């Protein structure tokens, strides 16, 4: 059924209301051009028509006082009516209600598609017929949301950030627009991210390899929290991977956080390196940051730059990894080992290898042994882990508004897991493996994940350490020389006291985790509690409760009102679900709940009626209001480093593969070096000769073969007629009558 209206001239009164059959009218069919010329054939989408010229209708005419009378009525249809099972698909019976729209929108925030949302609605409403909409209606709602955003994407994103900054004074954001009015850069950091940066911002991983959003690159600033989990401090969207874009993002990170980074991990991007050196310098009284290259990105290039044969078919990598990955060797040991490997495999003239040696102080762990927290990360794997985490929420083709909603959902999950681990660490104690009291002290101080790292060191100090020398106590300090049975030809020097400890492995300096050698020394001098000078705020359970400048989040009164409304709606929903659960599956109890809900709806109708919440209002509540004037939009296409270099990297691999010295093929049949056994000409001649003789082997009368043909036969053991010299060719090994020497052949 379709409805049409005729209004008065002032548009205030509806004069006529037409209710017609949905199959009224006839579609015009176009058969092509009428000039008879052959036009180009265009493949069109196949479609059907439901219209058959049905005249059934009802017309209502306005009388007065909002009353109507039936002016015209045609009851008869010229087509069979839809059966009961198909009524759910009629347009009049389909409507994306507030509940269905909420399902689609809430599922979209966690990257659940329309198909799964439709299946969820089916289970929730008790069947497809009870949903009141089809899968196509669900998908059309998602389409309508993208059309609602349209070209206003970037503008709506900035307006949403403005509202968030008004409600939360600790929210920081910045953006940049080019001369054409395109949004090219966007940076944001909320109050929780800024607080986490003050606690765990000593080492940050930054990488720009995530899937693009409208061709903008998503770049989160990632660190490690007290549970040894990834934590996001801030994020940005960049249109290009240039020095200017990186400098802009790093500059706003410094403004938002109030200080430079201590350490940043990056890949070998030249633009990123220049930006790091320019921005994180010692200007304006800030401490200059130090950067370290990702080891994985460099080691992963070894087969390309040095060849697969050297890296995979020799012991080159096995010998090299003992020097490039070890964090317990000194610089002199690394230099000697590197030089030995170069001479053994003759890499003195390899330019790329020499370039990597020239920047060895940027990626070899031996050069970072004296730098605090440089052992926390060796690669940008934390960023890779974050990218995988965000990929569970991200979908290619999302608008910026949709991306922001899913980013918030990802942050909610990450922070909820952090709260869950806090609760687990504070409310329970792990099982200890030794009777040493210091292990109980570690369990009381540190989080669960960090305790297990300490426990591993404590256990190793009891079973793997051998004390080679122990000095007398001088000024409260005892010196040890300890051998680790798992490390060959290495003695670790430890200077231990009841208040502090220093070990030559320097693990505490690089990771702020006490090493096994120090625990071994503590055990010898009778320490039962960790020295409090070695208990740093970073890994302890109460790290979040320490005072920080951004610990108190400033929010406006409007924000509190919005939060109260949201909490009230959630509370009402859970109260209703609790009432339904108490009713159980008993019909009379469910009827009682249903009658109360109906009465409540009637009371609300009598007190002002239902509040209209249209589809447009619902979309506005999700992604924001449409701006009255479009000031800027997103950029349609951006040439990122991936789009520019992807082809050149592939071509470089092809070129290096061709230049690589290939193995010379050798024929296994004739021993020649110009071909292999598949293309051997000699084998082809043998096959032809065998085929020729095979055709003349026997005649129809079953005559015996000649000795000449018998010598040229090629066969296998199943059809071999000549097992030994003198055997006949009348049978094979399966039917051979001559089993032993001297037997006769029948």
UniProtKB/TrEMBL annotation:
Residues 696-719, 726-735 have a biased composition (Basic and acidic residues). Residues 492-526 form the SWIM-type domain. Keywords: Metal-binding, Zinc, Zinc-finger. Residues 696-746 are annotated as: Disordered. One of its GO terms (molecular function) is zinc ion binding. Residues 736-746 have a biased composition (Basic residues). This is SWIM-type domain-containing protein. InterPro entries: FAR1_DNA_bnd_dom (IPR004330), MULE_transposase_dom (IPR018289), Znf_SWIM (IPR007527). It holds the Pfam family FAR1. It comes from the Eukaryota.
